[in-house]
Write a structure and sequence with these properties.
Layout (H helix, E strand, L loop, with lengths): L1 H39 L5 H23 L6 H15 L6 H25 L7
Helix pairs in contact: 2-3, 2-4, 3-4
Length: about 130
Amino acid sequence: MTNEILTNLVYTFILFGISILGIFLKSYVIPLIKAKMEQHNITITQDQIEVAKQVVSVLVESAYRLGIAGKLDDMKTYVMTQAKTQLRELGIELTDEMLDNIRRAALVEWEATVKEINDNEPLNDEG
């Protein structure tokens, strides 16, 4: 009989502890986690993405030209840094991954444009 009473008492204390832990989690930890998630959640409209693409595209082109001229060593760093600064001024916040994906797409597009221009250039001044 004593073992049964002790078992029920321990069981009650365990349930009480779990209840207190649940209240603590609901009151303090969950709101803290939600705040952190909202802090890192980036919402962006399609218009803002288009603006970001245009900004990054211009920066890729300028980085390419500066690199050809020998005035720029690290084109990726230049584009990423300038893009973050300019987009932040426009009120557009992107993650590094999103920005790098846009940069890569702009670079592929720019390289295709340069290749097309080079392929269509005449071999001499007569043509």
